[in-house]
Amino acid sequence: MEFDGERILDGINLYFNDHEFLTLLGPSGCGKTTTLRIIGGFLTPTSGDVLFDGKRMNDVPPYERQVNTVFQRYALFPHLNVFENVAFGLRVAKLHKQEIQERVHEMLGIVGLKGYEHRRIDSLSGGQQQRVAIARALVNRPKVLLLDEPLAALDLRLRKDMQNELKRIQQTLGITFIYVTHDQEEALSMSDTVVVMDKGRIQQIGRPEDIYNEPKNAFVADFIGESNILDGVMLADYKVRFFGRTFKCLDAGFAPNEPVDVVIRPEDIDFVPPEEGHLVGTVTSVTFKGLNYDIIVDFRGFKWLIQTTDHQPEGATVGIRLNPEDIHVMHKSEYSGMFGDYSSYSAEYDELTEDADDEEE
Amino acid sequence: MRKNKSLLLSGPYILWMLAFTLIPLCVVLYYALTDVETGKFTLDNMQQLVQYLPAFWRSILYSLIAAVICLVIGYPVAYYMAHCGPVAQKFLYMLVMLPMCMSFLLRTLAWVGILQDTGIINTLLIKLGFPHEPGEPVINLIRTPGAVILGMVYNYLPYMILPLYSVICKIDNRLVEAAEDLGCNGRKVFSKVILPLSMPGILTGMTMVFVPAVSTFYISNKMGSTETILIGDIIERMFKQGDNANMGAALSLLLMVLVFVCTGIINRFGGDEEGSVIV
Amino acid sequence: MKKVNRLITILIFVFLYIPMLVLIVASFSSGKDITEFEGFTFMRYAEVFRDRSLLGLLGNSLLISILASSIATVFGTVASLGIYSLKPRMRKTVMSLTNIPMTNPDIVTGISLSLLFVFVGSKMLHQRNSLTFWTLLIAHVTFNLPYVILNVMPKLQQMDHSLVEAAMDLGCTPVKSFFRVTIHEIMPGIITGAIMAFTMSLDDFVISYFVTGLDFITLPVEIYNYTKKQMQPKIYAMFTMLFLLIFVLMVVMNLLQLRQDKRRKEAKQ
């Protein structure tokens, strides 16, 4: 897919299964919205095909596709009330009045907006508008529902509620949901399948657990959760060497002496007295986070993030032990060396991924 | 698909505008460069333009003065309007709009009735016992440059007030509060915040008064004398009485260039800000 | 400061309305001249209705302005949709073309159009009378179009474009989505544009003056002809009636709008 001569999507190969909750996850500009717009029919790919039940859909305009979309900022029609917004698609399809009545009321019931039929759109709260947008799309009984960052404009608590709600609606109706978000937590908690994208390419497809525990490259490891990523060498199966020591691990299938990226999740690391540690370092900063402390420890000039409930004073010398299951080994990729170093750590690190909710082309 | 659609929709319009705005200007150029009798190519018309330069300068001078007066008296009005309650605002806005909908010919004629030697003001002054020579007015009002400028100000003042008003309305009151918070007194708030922010409206207003004023022929015709002949009068005469359309075309061309340059200068004042306020 | 502004505002409104007051008073005067009030009479009003010439001219003006503004509104709205989806550079070029009649002095617009019509009519089509009703209509449509476009374009740009996509997503063809969604969104711009075009057209003197032929004359042009010859006082009566009509129309429109605003506010609460 090219846009204004710029390559936006490259080699996207995706299969969607029926009744699946699939999430496209990635930073802004990664091509996830573009992918969604291609599926919705708002963009025509410059090369490649969109197939639907085996039929080629490239030249089918959006109004002839059995796909409906929940837009980023809802795109509710301001000149129509709640009922008419939801009834819009049915009226265009010229359904019988009676049927329109029934289906709209049923759908408003499902999204919890009974009694709001005659309200104006601008008199609704953000969450209510969200529900109208969902009802308006679902009332047409699409085979696939596309959702483009539908919760981005809601505040945190409402977003959590709506996540549960969406999941419930999806399970009740059994429709395939294709969901776009840049929020990794949202993706992990709602989806059956997560597709991690960056720079127009799919980085990894898998179940949420697999994506988190076995990231394929440094980008995925860093984007999903926090990771310390280190240079290492795979000496042999189940044996990896980094920081001048050899560790046991659970990974195999690498070439002998292949250079690799080693991922260690901050929450998997436990402190031990320095004399018992595999590695010994100095605490350089401690931030209280509520559930845990974020502690930055300097190991020979390389800074790690460790999330733990044990408080350690700044300047303390600490040791850590690494168990085989704490270590995840990945092949080198174009992202190697770009992520996973906390040398420039600031307490706001996790907000860096949050502010990426700008619209993308 | 998208490209075809947008051309299909806008194409007829583009053709229309080319045919009825751009091509007519080319026709004006053609007439300006041909002889009135023979229809052959000539530069005579262009060379004769020199003799009309005084009228050009007079037009520019009068209309600039009129534009500045409009700004000075229009700004307080717009400012006052913008700070009224919503109902009063609507009503005042309507009162400014209303004269624009009424025949400006008749309204100008009414001014003639007010100002002329036997007009309302002079009659009133005589009744009040002001000394005057028999058969002469107390004060000479009509057929002066002042009368022409008054006519311009009167006719085009709404074109100044409306853009000023819409710009001042949009000024965020929090900016004024912020300026006060940062230590500006009333005068400084005005000169440092409100005035710079109303610049787009000022520029639009100036242009909207200047352009019709510099090209008017009716106002100077009715309120002025042979000494205050404006370029619009000359052009009108060339077409409607003198039957020298070619000379008139040359003059129109010069007027167009002149307006283009003047509005360019006016807009340059405000830096590269878009001076486009739609009333 | 507020008091000074208020005083200036009052003075300016007096300044704006004194000439109109003079005209209104003159319409009730039995004197021939605008300056002398000889006696009160309704004679002028009777004249307007007895001799139909003024009403006929007003009819001409209304005909031209209604036709021209309706054509310009439809044509301009369609064109705006097209211009909106043009590539940015092309869009800019078209918008500067649109601005030509706005920035050019009316007299130049009038002259250039009349020269064009005469040039095409006499030199190319060899007609004796090349300035007709149709050329006048073309001229009015031409200077009306920019008002429509400049009012509709901003509305299109402000509109959330995903509304159109939502309509298509819900089964509307592009044409259907225009009538079901887009038009509602840009309606305020269309209405303002149409009203502006209509009033500009109705009140236009300068352009019409140069483009009008002998067979179709509008009211402002004829008023100008009167001012050159003997002034007919019945014109003041006409003016007064039009003034009242427009004043009432404006007040009614304002009241309706105020009521609508109020209702909308209540609905929001």
Name the beta content range of chain A. Answer: 25-35%
Q: In terms of quaternary structure, what is this?
A: heterotrimer
Classify the secondary structure makeup of chain A into a structural class: alpha+beta
Give me the strand/helix succession of chain B.
HHHHHHHHHHHHH
Which structural class do the helices and strands of chain B define? mainly alpha
Q: Largest chain-chain contact?
A: B-C, 89 and 83 residues
**Uncertain residue ranges of chain A:** 1-6, 347-361
User: Hey, roughly how much beta strand do the residues of chain B contain?
Assistant: under 5%
Shape, principal axes of CA atoms of chain B: globular
Average pLDDT number of chain A: 83
State the shape of chain A: elongated
Which sheet architecture does the biggest sheet of chain B show?
A: none
Radius of gyration of chain A using CA atoms only:
24 Å
- CATH-assigned homologous superfamily of chain B: MetI-like
Low-confidence stretches of chain B: 271-279
Range of helix content of chain A: 10-25%
Mean pLDDT of chain B, nearest integer?
A: 86
Number-wise, the strands of chain B total 0
Structure description:
The complex is a heterotrimer of chains A (361), B (279) and C (269). Chain A has 361 residues and is α+β, with helices and mostly antiparallel strands. A 6-stranded mixed β-sheet of chain A has the order 6-7-8-3-9-10, with helices on both faces. The longest helix of chain A is centred in the middle third of the chain and has 18 residues. The radius of gyration of chain A is 24 Å and the shape is elongated. The N terminus and C terminus of chain A are likely disordered. Chain B has one domain: Orthogonal Bundle (MetI-like fold). Chain B has 279 residues and is mainly alpha-helical. Chain B has 13 helices and no strands. The C terminus of chain B is likely disordered. Helix content of chain B is 74%, strand content 0%. In chain B, helix 8 crosses helix 9. With 269 residues, chain C is mostly helical. Chain C has a single domain, classed as MetI-like fold, CATH 1.10.3720.10. In chain C, helix 2 packs across helix 11, helix 6 packs across helix 8 and helix 7 packs across helix 8. The radius of gyration of chain C is 23 Å and the shape is globular. The two termini of chain C are 36 Å apart. The model of chain C has no long low-confidence stretch (mean pLDDT 88). At the B-C interface, helix 1, helix 3, helix 4, helix 5 and helix 7 of B face helix 1, helix 3, helix 4, helix 5 and helix 6 of C.
